[in-house]
Amino acid sequence: MTEPQGKSDLVDATGNPVRKLNLADSTPLVLPLDSPPGVPAFRPAFGLRNPHAQTLVGSLRPKRPRIAGTVQRKLRFADGDFAVLHDDQPLGWTRGDHVALLMHGLSGCHNSGYMVRTAAKLLQRNVRVFRMDHRGCGAGRMLAKNPYHAGRIRDLEAAIRMLERLCPGSPVSVAGFSLSANLLLRFLGDDPESLPLSLFRAVAVCPPIDLQHCVEYLQRTNIGQRYDWYFARQLVSQLAGTPQWRDDLPLAHAKRLPRRLIDFDELYTAPASGFDSADHYYSEASAKSHISKIRVHTAILVAEDDPMVSSEPWESVQLPPNITMCMTEAGGHLGFIGRKNTDPDNRWMDWRVVEWLLN
Questions:
Q1: In b/e form, how buried is each residue of 325-351, taking b as 16+ CB within 10 angstroms?
Q2: How many domains does the chain have?
Q3: What pLDDT was estimated at residue 23?
Q4: Which stretches of the chain drop beneath a pLDDT of 70?
């Protein structure tokens, strides 16, 4: 896909041209930096400056393009559970060409708006895309007994190994959104010497790198509490009638449904996944303490006004030179709906993810 006319030459805040850099050129950045070298600044669309507007419009008006010819591939884990990879292969793709793995956020699936839009843009650039439904999500809803959570790094490794078998010789880039962005960073920093050699680039969008801080952050405001309640109820409803529901767990005997994510994690996620408590789960699964060990070229996108995931934990993170951080002043949570004329459409986030995955 060709670059839009007139947009290949980027300028800085003073109007002077800047050289577009690859992630290989990245150096440690001082926070906050809303426009790293070569990245067009994010300017919210008119009427969408409010972070909740960005978040809700991004979610409720996803603008999903139609993708035809998707093939579902089951991924079996060592414990007998399955995830599902949705394989979208462009007509011109051949062995050795680029491959991208996309992972959805909490309560999402392969059909979430950001997943479909990003996949469509990558397909236009002749990239074979695999959209992953985690355990119990989307097409995998009835195929797992154990829950997906922020620390399932072995699931991600299994997915990449499967892509290596399906696409031998191809570079593999991975993008994680929201909770999966934490999962991706946790994986990259866990044991950097043993990562698959096929890994080319990684992109993490709105990652909650400190899960304990995240659930506490939601309780600071009334609207945050409403987000908290919504996700807690969504997670409970997703369990109903599936193999993941277990009568031996505390959730089955709770007098009332959890109204906070921390309550859901205490009653279900932690005991179902072998953690002592929600606090233990948050401590083990959070990526914050692992980011400094990442060696793969990685781009991270964060909005300072994200109403769900606070940017505060980044203040104490030491970034290695192979990580590019883009922290915008606005954008909400997985919103980043920008003004026209910067990109072919106003989905600023999608275009940055595509660029960072490939360059």
A1: bbbbebbbbbbbbbeeebbeebbbbbb
A2: 2
A3: 41
A4: 1-35
Based on the fold, state whether residues 38 and 166 are members of the same structural domain. Answer: yes
pTM, entire model:
0.90
Q: Among 284, 300, 331, which residue terminates a domain?
A: 284
Residue 2's Cβ-count burial label (10 Å; 0-12, 13-18, 19+) is: exposed
Alpha-carbon span 188 to 299, nearest angstrom: 12
- Are 194 and 108 in the same domain? yes
What pLDDT, on the 0 to 100 scale, is given for residue 29?
Answer: 43
Residue 343 within a domain: yes
Shortest CA distance to 137 belongs to which of 198, 75, 227?
75
12, 39, 79, 100 from 33: Cα distances, Å: 13, 11, 42, 27
Kindly give the residue spans of alpha helices, DSSP state H, lying in 167-316.
179-190, 211-218, 222-239, 261-264, 270-273, 278-285
Structural domain for 259, as ranges: 219-284
pLDDT at 3: 37
Per-residue pLDDT at 78: 96
